[in-house]
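REQUEST FORM: STRUCTURE PREDICTION
Request ID: SP-0412
Submitted by: Lab K.M.
Chain count: 1
Length (residues): 344
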Amino acid sequence: MHPNPQIPRWRCVRTEARALPSYDIAVERGVLEPHGIALASVNMDDPEAFERLAADVDAVLHGRGLLDAARIDMLTRCKIIAHYGTGIDRLDVAAATRRGIWVTNGPRYAVDEVSSHAIALLLAVARKIVAADRAVRAGQWHIPPLRPVHRITGRTLGLLGFGNIARATGRKARALGLRVVAHDPYVGADVFAAEGVQPADFASCLAAADFLSVHLPLTAETNCILNRDAFAKMKPGVIVINTSRGPVVDETALLEALRSGRLAGAGLDVFAHEPLATDHPLLAMPNVTVSGHVGFYSEESIEQMQRDAAEQVLIALQGTPPPFLVNREVLSAGPGTAPSEAGD
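STATUS: Completed
RESULT:
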């Protein structure tokens, strides 16, 4: 029998920011409330709102706002922080681990969407779709406004990172006739072999690529990994695509490479500071195609994101390590707060 939903056993909050759009919370409620988990929203733009709730929270659905060590230390009875997205750079995982709090992410909900978005940006920049659209609207017809455009088939796509999204991007790229190489020191040779992708070290991946698609988490190691030195290692005329995290690319160095002609173009869904300022110099570059951190979006991916995160909370509060656990080392230390205690 399920617990009586009228008498909540546990409390969960979803972090939101009123300045940014939020998603209907009905999906999460449908997963959690029948099992005695009360769900509320907290506005992370209010510096005191989280503090007022934190001590009574058994679980956090992390969507918006920063969960730093100070905020995590307020979660004295929390069992799990379920982050909606794949990247967890707005969440201090080490602080959560010290408190014995399980941290999960969303590794599968937008694999198709982000990989398709990366390929769409690649095609848009390589085929100069935006320039062609603007030319026709301005009364310019045919080829002259677009020169030069080069054939895609037979060229090389380099992937920085080789997780689920990068692998899906590689599969779609091969269907276009691209050769695919990838750099990821954390992925075994068997994975590369299974995907039919050539592994490469960082410098070799940069040197081989005609197109470079970035699929990296934001860490101290990857911050500004694409900098002046990295762009100098690339052949002239490369197109760079970034659908991962903005700060992995040094935007000043990127602008220099675009202006000098070292890079032929860039397709960017993410930026160092978001939302992107309307006077940002990247927006003045005719060889740059942008979107507003929407690569993850489809109606279906949003619903799966919400359901996946809520299910991680449910599994954790019922006492089982959730399948999308990020900080697996917390298992050897034992949970900080047992679910049976957290519900009392």
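NOTES: The first strand starts at residue 10 and ends at 16.
Reviewed by: T.R.
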